[in-house]
Automatic annotation (TrEMBL):
Keywords: Oxidoreductase. InterPro entries: NAD(P)-bd_dom_sf, SDR, SDR_fam. GO terms for molecular function: oxidoreductase activity. It comes from the Bacteria. This is 3-oxoacyl-ACP reductase family protein. It comes from Autumnicola musiva. Belongs to the short-chain dehydrogenases/reductases (SDR) family. Its EC number is 1.1.1.-.
Length: 243
């Protein structure tokens, strides 16, 4: 297994939920961590403080990852303050639960822009340095919605399925350069996002509880440490089997 110590990592949407847990787990591994956020500056700073208290390096970086200009600015800041990014977690995302007939074109475009296009923008920006180093790890936080349709909406399910195609393309085309790309497909992890869905009960999950962000983080670390795993989707869903 590869050592993640002193590797430079960027987690998009690292201020809360799953991203926060992955950022903290990478900090424990000794990685230098850039914690991206859009609005939650205090929460992102708190994650960085926790990493620094354990002797690690961390910075909070504000950017709307769906905007090209902001992404470029974010990557430049990380490059200048920590170094070239070697581990990228495309985690930032939004979910708006709606009935089929209520999803507007605006909702659809927004889900694609924030959940999917952002992954393209950030990955393309960090790839040149990974390719020069001949080492890189890309991890997409997709969803069971990519496989089953899920409980949010057609906009969300489509954006999450797109992440899997994107991941497979990068995996196939970068494998020889020691850059892996994988995805995690969680279902119903106990975060603000699930709380915001309103009325989703753990009873619909075979294990009868929501997953913990830490459980997604520990899976992420195993994937990131393993250079022989690429092009794969890992389901972490309490037994909600994908169709
Ligand atoms: P969350 O608790 O709502 O946290 C979302 C994070 O994304 C926050 O850090 C937020 O930043 C950030 N974010 C949102 N839009 C952004 C943007 N445009 N630019 C930069 N950052 C942005 O969500 P979560 O449950 O941890 O979900 C994380 C990922 O897992 C998402 O991609 C989600 O689709 C996926 N997922 C979650 C579940 C689940 O059950 N929770 C299941 C399947 C997949 P601020 O704090 O600054 O707003």
């Amino acid at each position: 297994m590869e050592n993640l110590k002193n590797k430079i990592a960027l987690i998009t949407g690292g201020s809360r939920g799953i991203g926060r847990s992955i950022a903290l787990a990478l900090g424990k591994e000794g990685s230098h961590v850039a914690v991206n956020y859009q609005h939650s500056e205090d929460k992102a700073e708190e994650v960085c403080e926790m990493i620094k208290e354990n002797g690690g390096k961390a910075i909070a970086v504000q950017a709307d990852v769906s905007e090209e200009r902001e992404v470029k600015k974010m990557i430049n800041r990380v490059r200048n303050e920590l170094g070239e990014i070697e581990i990228l977690i495309n985690n930032a995302g939004i979910a708006k639960k709606q009935k089929v007939e209520d999803v507007s074109l605006q909702d659809f475009d927004k889900a694609i822009k924030v959940n999917l296009r952002s992954g393209f923008l950030v990955t393309q920006e960090v790839l040149p340095a990974m390719r020069r180093k001949k080492w890189g790890r890309i991890l997409m936080i997709s969803s069971v919605a990519a496989q089953t349709g899920g409980v949010v909406g057609v906009d969300y399910a489509t954006s999450k399925a797109g992440q899997l195609g994107m991941m497979r393309y990068y995996a196939k085309n970068l494998a020889e350069e020691n850059i892996t790309a994988n995805a995690i497909a969680p279902a119903l992890i106990d975060t603000d996002m699930v709380e915001g869905l309103g009325g989703v009960k753990p009873e619909i999950i075979p294990v009868k509880r929501f997953g913990k962000p830490e459980e997604v983080a520990s899976l992420s670390i195993s994937i990131l440490k393993n250079g022989y795993i690429t092009g794969q989707t890992f389901n972490i869903n309490g037994g909600m089997q994908p169709s």
